[in-house]
Amino acid sequence: MIDAHVHLWRIGQNGCTWPTPDLAPIYRDVELAELRQVTTAAGMQGVILVQSQEDVTDTRWLLQLAADPLVMGVIGWVDLAAPDADAQIRTLASDPMLRGLRPMLQDQRPDWCDPRHGLALRAMAELGLVFDALIRPQHLATLERVASHRPNLRIVIDHAAKPDMTNRAGWEDAMASIARNPNIACKLSGLLTELRPGRGNEAIEPIFAHLWRCFGPGRLIWGSDWPVLTLATDYAGWLDRARAMVPPKHHDAVFGGNARRVYGLARAEPLRARA
Description:
The chain is α/β, with parallel strands linked by helices and about 280 residues long. It is built from 10 helices and 8 strands. The chain has helices spanning about 30-40, 55-65, 85-90, 120-125, 140-150, 170-180, 200-215, 235-245, 250-265, 265-275; strands at about 1-5, 45-50, 70-75, 100, 130-135, 155, 185-190, 220. It has an 8-stranded parallel beta sheet, with helices on both faces. The longest helix is centred in the C-terminal third of the chain and has 15 residues, at about 200-215. About 45% of the residues are buried.
């Protein structure tokens, strides 16, 4: 199994400005040794490190950590609207462990994409980098336009676009529409932290059912969102719940195979082994 979405950080270092002190359980250094203990106990063969800071310094640090055999790839960050974004992307992509970029769009305006992003998105497509989309439902329409305009750009929607668990209609329609683009996949991650306290399977199951209808077993990718996950439950709790929802014959795909294919992890592994 592969965990396609984990975070590491050191408070006050590598551009780290989040988490903030109000998130006391995760306001601490989160290191590779702890990640290894948690993931290997759950049977994970590898992980994808995902940026948590809007700072290239954080990405460079994660790429250094990717020398460890546990790490199968890194999703980094670049300001896609920066004048030199194209050059930054190409420099970072010289490290084969960089498998994608994640602009943090969840607090941006709904029409977040403008002409400034063009060169960066083209570079990502040319280099085979995945666009990890950290968004909310109001951003899906713009993301769909990007997916349609750039069919060679692979896009993964993080945390299923953080649906409002109490008002799903608009999200359901938008996800059904965007899923028609074959270059779009979706992470089965981050859902429990969006729940109101005390809500459980009765809230998650209809969300999962809709994702399954939209993306099927070939375009859903499981991730833990650890350690943010621990604000809602423990690692084993989310893994067990997800495995119970996914039909057993599709476990290999959702819990590993799809991540390998979408992020091109097989291409990174031989280089990692020589590190």
